[in-house]
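So, can you check what follows?
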Amino acid sequence: MTEPCDLTAVEARRLIGQRRLSPVELLESCVKRIEAVNPAVNAMTAMDVDAARATARDAEAAVMRGDHLGALHGLPLGIKDLEETKGLRTTWGSPLFANHIPTRDEGMVTNLRNAGGVVLGKTNVPEFGLGANSRNRVYGATGNAFDPTKNAAGSSGGSAVALATNMVPLATGSDTGGSLSNPAAFNGIVGYRPSPGLVPHERRGHGWNPLSVLGPMARNVPDLCLMLSAMASDEAGDPLAYTLHARTVRGEPALFHPPRAIDLSTIKLAFTEDFGQALVEQVIRRKFLAIVEACRPLFARVAHATPDVSGGDEAFEVLRAVGAVAAHAEKVRKTPELCGPNVHANVEEGLRYGIEDVGRALTRQTQIYRGFQAFFAEHDVLITPAITTSPRSWRELFPSEIDGQPTRTYFHWLAMAYYVTLTGHPAISLPVGLDEKGMPFGLQIVGPRGGDAFVLGVAAALEEAFAGDAALARPVPDIAKLKAAPPISTMPEFMTFG
């Protein structure tokens, strides 16, 4: 029998509105799942179950009174531990903030609460979100939902694992160079990087820099669209939160929930396994090319093509480092012993660059962006692998090589995502079966500038087309096996970096 926590967000919200499911019943089912599975994976961190129960009781009373109900009414939420939550510990995965309890919600969390969402707890991250391995010295490591000895990716790793194991129906994420798509790909769920400004981010340190965005995570595309409908808004504190998301693409308005109905037979699809330059494991290439073959009969045209992203590694490295130095250089200078290896690496790298490096990076970013515009004049949508490797041990802080080729930096293995980040184009990671190692595979779907509603519609159509194929449908972790697994906290290096 299906437990309430196993319902999709859309179905749970419908049943709540019909008075067939109590928000209290749904919350207690999620709490029970967390108690049973979280020890094996360490996805959920700080929690205030009493406060969540009080909110759920209020939500139930509102249903019974016949009040107007928000889009997320009664749905438990996981909030990434990079996002401030009033009265609930927010640490950014750093010992410097191990006991930090915010006095306010950040704007996105406020929007989710106003839509009726029930904040149940925080989800684990790498320190300050720096890296794609959700480990820190406050809460320890997060294990993959399909194998807790393997990397859950990051920086939204806790959110991805909590979703994959049905601890919560919806969770938040954020992204600079793949932090929404990579953990989604590794854990068999959906992560969405929206156009910058669509989801306001008033705490972005460099307000006009489009690299960092907030976004939704869910188990399927309709659920994700439901959450996005509550997150998207305007906010004067974010200079990028203007009306880009209200643009029309292909002559249709930007609607987010339900996802737009898209006829794939009218769409011109492009695909690339590596953007012509990324290091991508052969196991990933083989799975991706099998997906391309499955796509051929669905689309009007399928072409092997890539926008020019040459110089993208260098540009992203410099621009990322500028933000890292601004945010963390003082911490490294004053409290080096409380800063982990990724924080030190980012600051040290950034301090090596000069103004000419920054100027070249900004110029190349603009050239890549303009190349994307020419590319999308010829193609409607682009698909790529979301990630470059199959999940490896979480004890490996990052892959130093891919199929024998050395990586440039500790985040070079995220290149498939960060090339897109440079342009600000919307991108989604869609779970598409397992790779030959038995681990989830994520398909990155990239849309045109401002084409959020369009790319979500394409993803929903593909998800539906693949749903009946065991090799292509979303994989599901073995919950019974996770319940019986030893706590991840007993594994060596759980609270350290080796």
Remarks:
- The first strand starts at residue 44 and ends at 47.
- The chain is about 35% helix and 15% strand.
- The radius of gyration is 21 Å.
